[in-house]
Amino acid sequence: MQSTGATLFGLTAADLGTLLAAMATFAVLVALYAATTVRNPMGRRLRALTDRREQLKAGIIVAPSKRRTKIVHQSDTTDWMQSFLSSLKVLQDDQLRDAQKKLAQAGIRSKEYAIAVIFARLVLPIAVGGSAALLIYGLDLWPHWGPLKKFGAFAGALLLSYKAPDLYVGNKVTKRSDAIRKGIPDALDLLVICAEAGLTVDAAFARVARELGSAYPELGEEFQLTSIELSFLTERRMAFENLAERVDVEALKGVVTTMIQTEKYGTPLASALRILSAEFRHERMMRAEEKAARLPAIMTIPLILFILPTLFVVILGPAACSIKKALL
Predict the structure, then answer these.
(1) Which of 100, 136, 127 minimizes the C-alpha distance to 116?
(2) CA nearest to 205, candidates 180, 161, 239
(3) Secondary structure percentages of the chain, helix, strand, coil, to 5
(4) Closest to 111 (Cα-Cα) out of 58, 52, 161, 163
(5) pLDDT at residue number 40
(6) How far apart are CA 105 and CA 113, in angstroms?
(7) pLDDT one-digit tens code per residue, 268-306
(8) Backbone phi, then psi, for 107, in 5-degree steps?
(9) CB count, 10 Å around CB of 15?
(10) What is the pTM of this model?
(11) Over the stretch 130-140, which tens digit does the pLDDT of each residue have?
(12) What 3-state class would DSSP assign to 91?
């Protein structure tokens, strides 16, 4: 009788090797696709800015105190999802507003995706949780699992499917916020130069947006959108508040507060921005030094797991071979 050997979750060593080889092949294919596919996001960003400009020209804007949550119906799928959620009484204005804010911070301008996020929160737990319950309890694919392990797998699948849309949007917000945070000191330096050159605030934002379009495209896009809103909105304060709401970066909120106070009290803009730029640049340097100080502790585990065993094999391997030959 042939021995099957040790197994892990019912999989033999050959099965695990085949699975790892398949995962490695898929990763290589994804890497090749990402390397060979050139994506130019400037077209999408220009379309978003053009749409915003056209909205402001048409007067589709109200005061923040009177602003209502609106969804632009661009597809039948979005309309169906909205009607389905409304029929279940689960579509609330506060929830929709929070979803739109998170999507705006992630760089997704279309408000109809907020409906898709809320719909995914409702549907994914039912679909994934139902599939997990069918596989674990109905078909009993893993009969050797205990009751606690089965319940843990079912609960994990249910929780992960519910949190998946928020995790995806939160990941995009974090990446975009980090990219914007890196460019704030340079943007403030350029704003100082524009202010000392005599440019108006909206012209300064437009100029900085053009200069930062290549190095920091996310920040350049936000500055360009703020410049458009400064030109069309009746209250300039609204443009700065919209900038602070679209970007989840505390440093930029400080810049917005400074700009609002400058517009209100007429204080010198260049001196205030110069002080803020020095503070943010110092903060960025401190953050870099903090990451450098954590590096030795982070490198300890890779050093123990990968470098030291190889070093021992290289150093002790010839000596072990010589001792073996001497003993034989």
Answers:
(1) 100
(2) 239
(3) 80, 0, 20
(4) 52
(5) 57
(6) 13
(7) 878 888 888 888 888 878 888 888 888 888 888 888 888
(8) 90, 10
(9) 13
(10) 0.68
(11) 898 888 888 87
(12) coil
Cα separation, 102 vs 86, in Å, equals 21
Rounded CA separation 101/95 (Å):
10
Distance separating alpha carbons of residues 175 and 28, to the nearest angstrom: 24
Cα 243 to Cα 226: distance, rounded to the nearest angstrom: 6
What is the spatial distance between Cα 129 and Cα 136, in angstroms, rounded to a whole number?
A: 10
- The tokens for 155 are 């609960």
The C-alpha atoms of residue 8 and residue 298 are separated, in whole angstroms, by: 30
Question: What's the burial of 231, exposed, middle or buried (CB within 10 Å: 0-12/13-18/19+)?
Answer: middle
pLDDT value, residue 67? 44
Interval 239-250 mean pLDDT = 88
3-state secondary structure of 11: strand
Side chain identity, residue 286: M
Q: What is the structure's pLDDT at 173?
A: 92
How far, CA to CA in Å, does 170 sit from each of 99, 167, 230, 273? 11, 5, 29, 30
CA-nearest of 132, 122, 114 to 69 is: 114
Structure tokens at 227: 């410049």
The DSSP bridge partners found for residue 8 are: 11
Let me know: does 252 contact 243? Beta carbons within 8 Å. yes
Q: C-alpha dihedral over 248, 252, 256, 257, to 10 degrees?
A: 100
CB 220 within 8 A of CB 212: yes
